[in-house]
Amino acid sequence: MSILCVGSVALDSVETPSGKADRVIGGSAVFFASAASLLSPVRVVGVVGDDYPLDQLAFLEARGADLSGIEQRSGDSFFWAGRYHDDMNTRDTLDTRLGVFADFEPKIPDAFRESKRVFLGNIDPLLQHKVLDQVDAPEVVVCDTMNYWIEGSRPALMELLGRISILMVNDEEVRQLADEPNLLRAARWVQERGPGMVVVKKGEHGAILFADSWTFFIPGFPLERIFDPTGAGDAFAGGFLGCLAQQNSTEPADLRRAMVYGSTLGSFAVEKFSVERLIDLGHDEIDDRVRAFKELTSFETLLPVEQRV
Ligand code: AMP
After folding, report:
1. pLDDT category, 213, cuts 50, 70, 90?
2. Do 10 and 79 contact (CB within 8 A), yes or no?
3. Which of 54, 208, 230, 237 has its CA 20 to 30 A from that of 263?
4. Residue 205 has what pLDDT?
5. How far apart are CA 294 and CA 288, in angstroms?
6. Ligand 1, atom 5: closest residue by C-alpha
7. Cβ contacts of residue 16 below 8 Å, gap of 6+?
């Protein structure tokens, strides 16, 4: 089942304690598609300038991704620059240049309108609405956002909550949105306003899925070296929705597995700069890491009663 994804298609300059990358391909749609396309067909909608190395997205097409929704206009592509601190959990944004993204109006190609699985990358909530206006009958809509929109575009975002199935944000963002420091209460606050589920990402510490009557937690995969955390959240979303789309089910067991695939793809994304690690990632490597997660998190159940003191 194909997934429609709309988001930024960017050039990123990134500095981390492990090194530097200059004007490499990035953006929420690119990270999402690089992960999701390993599991399901993806349709990408976005905009780039005439400086964008579209040939570097050929690996996505080779995996069956449909990039015909990426519009190329004259001008500069969206550009983002960031520098990570030593702990890799915090970063400074050094530069954001919107370029052709400034007047991006998502146009969903006719062939994409019947998409049942939709990822709304972190863009203006008004544009996220416009995407949904053009999709016939989406069944699972996963939506990301950030502090900038929570502060500056709250009414549109609040209305959007009534149109999506899963809000997928980081812990700071959900606390800010709900104005509530407790994560569980913040997630419940969001759920009461529309989305049946909230996925809260906690960087290297994993992610929590809050559903109606149950909750699931998946850790981040322990890595000795994190190269570049950029796009890990979008790769998580790609693994999550890619897995759900392949299963064509949102039963609790499938949602739990989707969380594992999300954390798996997120963990690969940080092992190299840009989407480099996702380009030639093999299914055997994905399988091994999913198995390692199983090992990492499974345990025998309660101590036998007779052994208790
Ligand atoms: P993340 O690490 O999940 O925040 O995603 C980082 C990616 O998002 C980078 O590749 C950036 O190009 C892109 N990005 C950064 N800021 C924005 C923004 N304001 N709007 C859309 N995309 C952005």
Report:
1. very high
2. yes
3. 54
4. 94
5. 10
6. 231
7. 83, 84, 88, 226, 227, 228, 229
Nearest to 52 by CA among 82, 31, 73, 83: 73
- Within a 10 A sphere around the Cβ of 76, how many other Cβ atoms? 18
CB 262 within 8 A of CB 207: yes
Measure 210 CA to ligand 1 centroid, in angstroms. Answer: 24
**Rounded distance between C-alpha atoms, residue 234 and residue 255, angstroms:** 17
Q: What is the pLDDT of residue 196?
A: 94
Does the reported pTM lie above 0.90?
A: yes
Give residue 47 CA to ligand 1 midpoint distance, Å: 14
Residue 213 CA to ligand 1 center (angstroms) comes to 32
For the CA of 31, the closest atom of ligand 1 is 10
Place of tokens 């709309």: 6
Per-residue pLDDT, averaged over 97-105, amounts to: 96
Q: What is the pLDDT of residue 89?
A: 82
Phi, psi angles (nearest 5°) of residue 58: -60, -30
Q: What's phi and psi for 239, nearest 5 deg?
A: -65, -40
For residues 82 and 87, what is the distance between their CA atoms, to the nearest angstrom?
Answer: 14
**Cβ atoms within 10 Å of 101's Cβ, excluding its own:** 25
Phi-psi region of 115 (alpha: psi -120 to 50; beta: other; left: phi over 0): beta
Pick from 110, 89, 94, 91: which is nearest to 22 by CA? 94
CA distance linking residue 120 with residue 237, whole number of Å: 10
Contact 257, 8 (CB under 8 A): no
φ, ψ (nearest 5 deg) of residue 82:
-145, 155
Give residue for tokens 């420091």: 181
Q: How far apart are CA 232 and CA 278, in angstroms?
A: 11
The number of angstroms, rounded, from the C-alpha of 268 to the middle of its chain's C-alpha atoms is 13
Q: Given its phi and psi angles, is residue 247 left (phi above 0), alpha (psi -120 to 50 degrees) or beta?
A: alpha
Residue nearest (by alpha carbon) to ligand 1 atom 10: 27
- Give the separation between CA 50 and CA 208, rounded to whole angstroms: 39
